[in-house]
Write a structure and sequence with these properties.
- The complex is a heterodimer of chains A (about 150) and B (about 100).
- Chain A has one domain: Heat Shock Protein 90 (2-Layer Sandwich).
- Chain A has 3 helices and 6 strands, in the order E-E-H-H-E-E-H-E-E.
- Chain A has helices at about 25-35, 40-60, 115-125; strands spanning about 5-10, 10-15, 70-80, 80-90, 125-130, 135-140.
- In chain A, helix 2 packs antiparallel against helix 3.
- The longest helix of chain A has 21 residues, at about 40-60.
- The radius of gyration of chain A is 15 Å and the shape is globular.
- Chain B has 3 helices and 5 strands; from the N terminus they run ββαβαβαβ.
- In chain B, strands 1-2-3-4-5 form a 5-stranded mixed sheet.
- In chain B, helix 3 (about 80-90) links the parallel strand 4 and strand 5.
- Chain B is globular and about 30 Å long.
- Classes of the chains: A alpha+beta (about 150), B alpha/beta (about 100).
- Chains A and B meet through helix 1, helix 2 and helix 3 of A and helix 2 and helix 3 of B.
Chain lengths: ~150, ~100
């Protein structure tokens, strides 16, 4: 079972297994963080979307099919905004190197895939990838209004 | 996530209610299959009660659009809230669909 723990003020963590059916738990987690900071519905939706896309990417491609793996998500806030860190021990994969999606193509030429990381880029102000000590670490930052100064 | 299908005035209408996230998209994909047999019927996707959509849901909409276009059917989206419209605008989906 996924569980939220270490829920101190200004710092939240959640661990999920590589099963997309656990995405609603991520949604609850992101909503809690957004509510705590009094964010507006649009910003909450943008954060939910970015986090879902980034985490689903790990769940779908990070671990060999049929093997169990985990994704750790943490959130922190400071005066400049919110920072989310997504960490997994799956195969090294840098999502920031994925090609841009051409959003101007007509329906017939649009590819069904590739939108996930594109949306993460669009929703967040910065996205940084590193591979360290056997972990993929993706750091997503977004400037938001009404973040409480700790 | 809940969908309801109806046929009205020769149009195929599907009402979406709730959150169309990756977890819900597997079930929703099955439910949308009824729209794929749309020869001779235009389609309306009623999104007035749709609260959220991620890329897995966008893929379902695009997949349906491709099938429908090939069969000469139009796909219209109705009632979508402003936040979701932003997602559609950002991904270039706004000019793929007709909005009513």
């Amino acid at each position: 079972m996924p569980q939220a723990n270490n829920k101190n003020i200004g710092h939240w963590t959640l661990t999920l297994s590589n099963d997309v059916q656990e995405i609603p738990q991520l949604n609850t987690f992101v909503d809690e963080v957004c509510e705590f900071h009094g964010l507006d519905p649009l910003t909450s939706m943008e954060l939910n979307l970015a986090l879902e896309e980034a985490v689903v990417n790990v769940m779908s491609y990070g671990y060999p099919k049929g093997t169990k793996g985990y994704v750790d998500i943490s959130a922190q806030s400071d005066s400049s905004g919110l920072k989310f860190v997504i960490k997994d021990s799956g195969k090294p994969f840098d999502p920031t190197t994925k090609e841009e999606v051409d959003t101007t193509l007509p329906a017939e030429q649009r590819d069904i895939g590739g939108l996930g990381i594109f949306l993460v880029r669009k929703m967040m102000d910065s996205i940084k990838y590193e591979y360290k000590d056997g972990y993929n670490i993706l750091t997503l930052k977004k400037k938001v209004n009404q973040v409480i100064n700790q | 996530m809940k969908t309801t299908f109806e046929e009205k005035d020769g149009k195929y209408i599907m009402h979406f209610e709730g959150r169309l996230d990756t977890a819900a998209s597997v079930q929703t994909e099955q439910e949308m299959k009824v729209l794929h047999n749309c020869e001779g019927h235009d389609i309306i996707l009623d999104c007035a009660q749709l609260e959220y959509i991620s890329s897995s849901g966008l893929r379902l909409f695009l997949g349906l659009l491709k099938v429908a276009k090939a069969k000469g059917s139009k796909v219209c989206i109705s009632g979508m809230n402003d936040n979701l419209r932003q997602v559609f605008a950002m991904t270039g989906f706004t000019h793929l669909f007709e909005f009513v």
